[in-house]
Amino acid sequence: MSSAKFHGLNTNNTLMIVTDFMMTFISFILTLFCAKLFVNHFYLSYTDLEVYIQFFVFAIPLHLTLLGVGLYNEKLRESFNGITIRILVAVILGYILTYLLSQLFIDDFFPPSFNELLSVIAFLTLTNLRFIIIKLGLNQLSKRRILVLGSGQRASIIEQCMRRKSDRIGLDFIGFISVEGDANGQLKQEKVLTLSEPLESFVKSNGVDELVIAIDERRNNLPFEDLLGLKQLGVRITDIIDFVERETGQVAVSHLNPSWFLFQNHRSKNQLRTSAYWLFNCCVAIGIALLTFPFMILTAIAIKLESGLRFPILYSQERVGLNGESFFLYKFTSMRADAEKNGVQWAQKNDPRTTKVGKFIRKFRIDELPQLYNVIIGDMSFVGPRPERPQFTEGLSSSIPYYNQRHNVKPGLTGWAQLKYPYGSSEKDALEKLKFDLYYIRNRNFTLDLLILLKTSEIILFGKGQ
Questions:
Q1: Residue 443: how many CA atoms within 13 Å on its side-chain side?
Q2: Closest CA relative to residue 119, chosen from 173, 62, 67, 170
Q3: Do the Cβ atoms of 98 and 62 come closer than 8 Å?
Q4: pLDDT band at residue 231 under the 50/70/90 scheme
Q5: What ranges in 137-270 are assigned the alpha helix state H?
Q6: What would the DSSP string read from start to end of 28-53?
Q7: Least packed by Cβ within 10 Å: which of 89, 95, 158, 205?
Q8: Which residue spans of the chain are classified as CATH 3.40.50.720?
Q9: Closest CA to 33 of 437, 197, 25, 203
Q10: What positions belong to coiled-coil segments (predicted)?
């Protein structure tokens, strides 16, 4: 795995996870103390095994839901009120999961109101903890000092991909060193330096943790001896492409060369793994279909009530899938019947062709539920690049370099690009999304897929559909 940050997990949010777990344990002990104090015939002690089984049955679902609502995203842009709402949603979902697990695995040792009181106390302790952490700036304890060697076109990738303050949390950019051969005037906001001392001395005196190589013309300009010496001193040496990929979860497509794809460590095809992955997707799809069936019925009724009995509930649309092969994707109808009277068009974020019901079901991704059928029959996975229409794919493949690499994996209901980039409705957006799709293809594994599914729940819960 190329991402040293494990797709967002680093010192700062690892500390957050640990402190949340400690506060959850404190909340559990407080609740247990209240139960022993006020509930008659409650004889469990702090050393009984059942007590700690109950704790983990509560703590594990709670932390999964905290992750699912985005509270361990270091670059989350949210007010404290927004964070409080997310904690409340996480605690409610955690309570529901705990109740279900308790019914399955825990005997009736605890009083009926135990989990309810525990949830309230956990909400209060977690909320106050977050307030203290944010107020004292403890969520930004760890910062790596970054020096960029180069100030031209390649160095400008950082300015393009990491413009916002939130993109640079955990990083302290010392500056960009100008190197002979760099394109002039590429950096507009960054601090460009001209060294008056040896590179090694500058790195030592400024406490540099990582040196990013972003030289436009490397021939005869790359100081190998200095770099080897710095590496022996423990300074991390990183290529600009790898740095941006690690920190932003995207690949700088415009600066790639074919060898980047050639030397990727692709996993060999394994029929057993492929079958197991399809079986996992199929079982989850069937489970979600059963859980969401009432919503699908209500959606069908709402569509008919708004648009008439003859209006189709579902529509199918040709899309390009694995290895460039076409398949038909299914959705709830969210647009008017004459939506494409003027030919094939990009879907817009606030598309005027959308019906009132369609606007609602698209906001919460209910319109995507029929694609569970596509997952079950193997056309799609839960996670992967979103499949595009053939009419668009042909043009995008000829105008955007490496666009067809998206077809090396099955398309998905959700994906890394959908989490990281707003609604796309142009060729420019397609290029930006490709950067995230290539990152996913390079780093894909079960853990990343699970993380994407959990973060997708955040988008659905808070109506931030992309």
A1: 27
A2: 62
A3: yes
A4: very high
A5: 156-161, 199-205, 224-232, 240-248, 258-262
A6: HHHHHHHHHHHSTT----TT-HHHHH
A7: 205
A8: 144-248
A9: 25
A10: none
Alpha carbons 57 and 51: distance in angstroms, whole number: 10
Report pLDDT digits (tens) over 157-183: 998 888 888 788 788 999 999 888 888
Cα distances from 112 to residues 39, 42, 211, in angstroms, run 10, 12, 57
Show the CA angle centred on residue 20, arms to residues 113 and 56, nearest 5°: 50
**Residues counted in the chain:** 466
Distance CA 20, CA 14 (A): 10
CA dihedral 21, 24, 25, 29 (to 10 degrees): 170
Q: CA 154 to CA 135: how far, in whole Å?
A: 37
What are phi and psi for residue 281, nearest 5 degrees? -60, -40
| Mean pLDDT of the 413-427 span | 81
Which H or E run includes 294? helix 271-307
Question: pLDDT class for 369, splitting at 50, 70, 90?
Answer: very high
| Confidence check: pLDDT of 318 > 90 | yes
CA distance 424 to 417: 10
pLDDT for 264: 65
User: What is the dotted CATH code of the domain comprising 144-248?
Assistant: 3.40.50.720
Please give the structure tokens belonging to residue 330. 């299914």
> Mind giving me the DSSP string for 89-146?
HHHHHHHHHHHHHHHHH--S-S-TTHHHHHHHHHHHHHHHHHHHHHHHTGGG---EEE
Token digits of residue 249: 């979860």
Reduce the secondary structure of 130-167 to three states and give it as a string: HHHHHHHCHHHCCCEEEEEECCCCCCHHHHHHCCCHHH
Q: Which two tokens stand for residue 132?
A: 């203290």
Give pLDDT, residue 10: 63
Judged by phi (left if over 0) then psi (alpha if -120 to 50, else beta), residue 41 lies in left
- Residue 75, SS3 per DSSP: coil
How far apart are the two ends of the chain, measured CA to CA in Å? 26
